């Protein structure tokens, strides 16, 4: 089978190092860097997985990935273990 394991580095406490959110045409695009490649800032070269949530705008008026992540965590929509 496929191994989709997430590699956790020393920046494990900051999910924004791994997740980037954008709104495109009323959809939310979640770009993932399993190596924490967004630690300095979002860079397309670090993306190794893309998920599109059709008909959902999770970004809304938020201006940073951390704001989106905090909102999802507070509402119980993003569960970490």
Overall description:
A 3-stranded antiparallel β-sheet has the order 1-2-3. The radius of gyration is 13 Å and the shape is globular. It has one helix at residues 65-74, and strands spanning 19-24, 27-32, 49-53. By secondary structure, the chain is an alpha+beta fold. It contains 1 helix and 3 strands, in the order βββα. Strand 1 (19-24) and strand 2 (27-32) form a beta hairpin.
Write the layout of secondary structure elements.
Blueprint: E1 19-24, E2 27-32, E3 49-53, H1 65-74
Antiparallel strand pairs: 1-2, 2-3
Short description:
The protein is of the alpha+beta class and 81 residues long. It is built from 1 helix and 3 strands, in the order βββα.
- Count up the helices: 1
Query: Could you tell me the mean pLDDT?
Result: 87
**Main β-sheet description:** 3 strands, antiparallel
**Care to count the β-strands?**
3
Order of helices and strands: EEEH
Q: What overall form do the CA principal axes indicate?
A: globular
Strand content: 15-25%
Helix/sheet category: alpha+beta
Which consecutive residue ranges, at least 5 long each, have pLDDT under 50? 8-12
Helix content: 10-25%
End-to-end C-alpha gap? 23 Å
- Strand arrangement, largest sheet? 1-2-3
Question: Rg to the nearest angstrom?
Answer: 13 Å
């Amino acid at each position: 089978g496929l191994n989709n394991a997430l590699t956790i580095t020393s920046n494990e406490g900051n999910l924004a190092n791994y997740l980037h959110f954008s709104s495109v045409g009323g959809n939310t695009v979640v770009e993932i860097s399993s190596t924490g490649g967004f630690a300095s800032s979002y860079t397309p070269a670090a993306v190794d997985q893309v998920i599109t949530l059709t008909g959902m705008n999770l970004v809304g008026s938020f201006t940073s990935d951390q704001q989106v992540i905090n909102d999802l965590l507070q509402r119980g929509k993003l569960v970490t273990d």
